[in-house]
């Protein structure tokens, strides 16, 4: 829907690596808030915003990376416990308790790794939910 709204100002890719079990499931509303943040805070004011969502399997864990080319997370330096990130982290903690998924979340700025780039990166790792109904 956001692609329709932003037309040519936004592009996105979703990649699923070859090793990912196609039966893997991701808990409802785990990824959505981070993608919404990427649209709202990352690319909404850019001339050409880009979002990528990548799924990989590594050592029996599903690895999900959401990346945008916006300004990054200014609140990581100013407010380490920003409300949206805190709420999403609470949701992950609930899933950990309910389903023993061992979800971990890392949020960082792309420019902290490569100063020639910009953007926010959210990396989620979790035990694969393959086989759950």
Determine Rg (CA atoms, Å). Answer: 15 Å
Query: Mean pLDDT, rounded to whole units?
Result: 84
Query: What is the strand arrangement across the widest sheet?
Result: 1-2-3-5-4
Largest sheet: 5 strands, mixed
Structural class: alpha+beta
Helical proportion, percent range: 25-40%
How many helical stretches? 5
Give the overall silhouette: globular
TL;DR of this structure?
The protein is α+β, with helices and mostly antiparallel strands and 133 residues long. It has helices spanning 2-6, 32-43, 75-78, 83-99, 110-113, and strands at 10-16, 49-58, 61-68, 104-109, 120-127.
Outline the structure in words:
The longest helix has 17 residues, at 83-99. It contains five helices and five strands, in the order αβαββααβαβ. The chain has a five-stranded mixed beta sheet. The two termini are 28 Å apart. It is an alpha+beta fold. It is globular, with a radius of gyration of 15 Å. It has helices at residues 2-6, 32-43, 75-78, 83-99, 110-113; strands spanning 10-16, 49-58, 61-68, 104-109, 120-127. The model has no long low-confidence stretch (mean pLDDT 84). 32% of the residues lie in helices and 29% in strands.
């Amino acid at each position: 829907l956001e692609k329709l709204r932003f037309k040519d100002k936004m592009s996105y890719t979703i990649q699923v690596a070859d090793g990912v079990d196609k039966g893997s499931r991701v808990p409802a509303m785990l990824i959505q808030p981070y993608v919404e943040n990427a649209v709202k805070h990352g690319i909404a004011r850019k001339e050409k915003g880009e979002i990528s969502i990548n799924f990989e399997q590594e050592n029996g864990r599903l690895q999900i990376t959401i990346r945008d080319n916006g300004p990054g997370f200014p609140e990581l330096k100013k407010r380490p416990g920003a409300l949206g990130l805190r709420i999403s982290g609470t949701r992950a903690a609930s899933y950990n308790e309910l389903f023993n998924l061992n979800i971990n979340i890392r949020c960082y700025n792309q420019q902290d790794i490569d100063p020639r780039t910009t953007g926010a990166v959210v990396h989620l790792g979790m035990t694969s939910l393959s086989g759950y109904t």
